[in-house]
Each structure stands twice: as structure tokens, then as C-alpha cells.
Amino acid sequence: MNIKDKLIHLLEGTGYTQKKVATKTGLSTAVISQYLKGVYNGNISNVESAIADFISREEERARRREVKESFVQTQLAGLALGLISNTHMDSDIGVIYGPAGMGKTMALKCYVEMNKGAILIEANPGYTAKVLLQELCARLGVKKTGNIHELSEECIQALTGTGWVVLVDEAELLPYRALEVLRRIHDRSGVAIVLAGMPRLLINLKGSRGEFAQLYSRVGMALDLEAHKGKSEVEDFNTILASLLPDDGENVVAAPGVAEAFLKYSTGNYRRMFKLARGVVRASAIGNQGISVKLIETYAQLLIH
Ligand SMILES: Nc1ncnc2c1ncn2[C@@H]1O[C@H](COP(=O)(O)OP(=O)(O)OP(=O)(O)O)[C@@H](O)[C@H]1O
Ligand SMILES: [Mg+2]
Fold first, then answer.
1. pTM given for the model
2. What's the CA-to-centroid distance between 70 and ligand 1, angstroms?
3. Candidates 1.10.260, 1.25.10, 1.10.10, 2.40.33; correct CATH number of 3-64?
4. Which atom in ligand 1 lies closest to the alpha carbon of residue 197?
5. What confidence tens digit (pLDDT) does each residue in 181-216 have?
6. What count of other Cβ atoms lies within 10 Å of the Cβ of residue 231?
7. Fold of the 75-228 domain
8. Which residues sit with their C-beta closer than 6 Å to ligand 1?
9. Ligand 1 atom closest to Cα of 269?
């Protein structure tokens, strides 16, 4: 992007007027206006260097205000952590399922950080039973060569008597054989297992015709995040939102309509809200314009639905 486009972008994305830019750059409003129209016939490079300095100062301020995500204890996260902790204590199999962006991974990571006896594995589309076992062996620090049977035995030996829990994220990607391998390890070693993933995880566990009864009957607790979301949604959104917005002394969340606008444009998705808050906070820092409903609306239009 050239300097002129950057300036146009900044004027559009923030509350800055040409007059304000003039003050900040030490140029006159007329010069800024002529420069933008492409009719300025003075020394362009002086003008551009003043504008470039101004833009980089603004960008630097935005960087300092960068929104970082960190776990906050929402009610939904509390339910997920409760399921993990119960499953862990009971050496059971537990399932957490719900749509994208609802905080499954955040909850699993939080549990792992707080508990030594927890192993987190993130499945991916390449996870066959063997790949899963190799990963588990690597995490347990045991030999990871051999066939599925040998690898299973290694894991069972290493896990027996530990009282640990194995958490598998994106478990909807595991093929049935990999789920079966986990069941066997659970049966033989007594390790607790928590599977987290998209709603189709539940179908994978039951089988589309209920043919996987042996696996599904092992599941103690199952948490349907979607079903619980409604009860705590507004409160949970506000809890996360408060942790994302800058605390400059003024209470941004309480500004009229701001919390409602964030909620509305997040369309029930915490990830979307994070992205929205990150963009809005950055834009608000650039113009130092504060967070308004209008800014939220502008930014929401840029996010995909
Ligand atoms: N308890 C929480 N504390 C703070 N932020 C949260 C929390 N829950 C969700 N979020 C926000 O929502 C985003 C999505 O959460 P997360 O990645 O855990 O979702 P997910 O359910 O694992 O989604 P997917 O199925 O797409 O993997 C996080 O990156 C974070 O910004
Ligand atoms: Mg996730």
C-alpha cells in the first residue's frame, strides 16, 4: 500500500478527520486535501514523509494496545472444566461437543495448565489409529515403533496406575479404529479420556445406526455446549468481552449499546467476538476515538459470516 492509500484507509477506518491529520502532521488542511485529491503541486516527498511518520506513530500505538486472548472462567467453560475434572476423578470417558468457536480448546488448555496429570492431543485429519498411538507414545516418552498392538501395549503399560487423563481435541476427526484403540487403552489402563469436538463426534461414537454401542456405553458424561449456551450466553459474552477491552479507567463495556453491539455481531460465536474485539480495539486506538457502536458495526461488516 502506498502512503496515500494508507492515509485513506486510516481516515476511513477511524474517526480522524483531515483537519485532525493536519494538526498531527503539522501540515495544513488545504495541503492534506490537495494531496488526497492528487492536485498538490508542492514538495510531495516532504508531505509524504510527514504523513508516513504520523501513520507509523498511530500503528505503534495500535500495537501497544493489541488484544491478547487469555482464558476467562465463563459459565460454559466452568461446565466443561467440571466435566473434565469429574471424568478425570472417576477414570471415566467423557465427551464435550459443540459448534466451532465455543471455547472447547480454551477449556482443555486451561485444564492441562492447571493439572500435571493431563495430556492434551490435538487430532487432525491424518490421525489414523497408528498415528494417534505414535503421538501418545511420544508424549509418554515410550518406544514408538511397532504395530498397533505393540504400540497400544506400550501406552497401556505407561498409563496404568498413573491416574492421568488423556484429552483429545478435535476428536471428531478420529476414525472409528482410533476411537476403539482409545477405548481399549482406557479399559486396560484405567486412564480417563475426554474427547472434545464438533457435534458429529457424538454420531461417530454411537455409529450412525447405533452399531458402536460398546464404545458409546463407556461414556459417562457428555456435555452439549450448544444446549447450555442459551442460559449463560449474555453473561459469558460480557465476561470475555471485559477481558478483551482495554482498561483505560473508563468502563468501555458500560458505554451505551457497546456490549449489545458486540453480542449482536458476534452471532453467538466466541471466536467471532474475539476477532471483532481485536479489530475494534485496534481501530479505536489508531484514531484514539474510543469504542462506539458505529465502529463495531463498521468492523463487523469486514468479518465473514
Ligand atoms: N473461556 C474463554 N476465555 C476466553 N476466551 C474464550 C473463552 N472461550 C472462548 N474464547 C474465545 O473464543 C475463541 C474460540 O475458542 P476455542 O478455540 O476454544 O473454540 P473451539 O470450541 O475449540 O472451536 P473449534 O471447534 O473451531 O476448534 C478463542 O480463541 C477465544 O478468543
Ligand atoms: Mg478447538
1. 0.81
2. 10
3. 1.10.260
4. 25
5. 999 999 999 999 999 999 999 999 988 887 788 888
6. 12
7. Rossmann fold (3.40.50)
8. 69, 71-72, 74, 77, 100-106, 198, 240, 270-271, 274
9. 12
